[in-house]
């Protein structure tokens, strides 16, 4: 049986309880790491700057990781507890989209079986395979 590292646990436990519940069930079925739960505004801004110049104009679209700066536009990672998490199948291979999809299938199935509305970044036009977030209806 798989288990979380201390680092993954620390990141996971910054998340909404529904995300924690989903991941605690998923780790019994597939090995993965939690790479982000809560993200501070400073960390969010650091990620936002990637691929942009000092005026925040996009200079390299391939390096863009977020469109939220954490100040003017918050990410779902910028709330306590976090409304979003980034997870990656283990062993880590950023190019193995099939493995990301396998992990997503398991996570989304667990969410559905627990009546939790969850969105996966792999279903978006701009693919974000590690990203899962709770439906906004929970926070209106």
Summarize the structure in short.
With 140 residues, the chain is an alpha+beta fold. Helix content is 31%, strand content 13%.
Relative helix content: 25-40%
Q: H/E order of the elements?
A: HHEHEHEE
The value of Rg in angstroms is 15 Å
| Number of structural units classed as domains | 2
Determine the N-to-C terminus distance: 38 Å
Oligomer: single chain
The mean pLDDT is: 96
Task: Identify low-pLDDT runs.
Answer: none
Arrangement of strands in the largest sheet: 1-2-4-3
The share of residues in extended strands comes to 5-15%
Specify the number of helices. 4
Using the alpha-carbon principal axes, give the shape. Answer: globular
Number of strands: 4
Mind describing the biggest β-sheet? 4 strands, antiparallel
Structural class: alpha+beta
Topology (elements, then pairings):
Layout lengths: L5 H7 L4 H10 L5 E5 L4 H9 L34 E6 L7 H17 L4 E3 L10 E4 L6
Antiparallel strand pairs: 1-2, 2-4, 3-4
């Amino acid at each position: 049986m798989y288990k979380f590292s201390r680092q993954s646990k620390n990141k996971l436990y910054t998340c909404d309880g529904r995300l924690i519940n989903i991941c605690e069930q998923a780790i019994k079925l597939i090995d993965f790491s939690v790479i982000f739960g809560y993200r501070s505004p400073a960390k969010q801004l650091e990620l936002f700057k990637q691929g942009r110049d000092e005026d925040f104009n996009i200079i390299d679209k391939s390096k863009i990781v977020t469109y939220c700066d954490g100040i003017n536009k918050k990410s779902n990672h910028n709330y306590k507890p976090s409304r979003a998490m980034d997870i990656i199948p283990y062993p880590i291979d950023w190019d193995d989209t099939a493995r990301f999809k396998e992990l997503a299938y398991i996570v989304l199935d667990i969410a559905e079986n627990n009546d939790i509305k969850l969105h996966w970044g792999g279903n978006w036009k701009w693919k974000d395979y590690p990203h899962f977030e709770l439906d906004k209806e929970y926070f209106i």
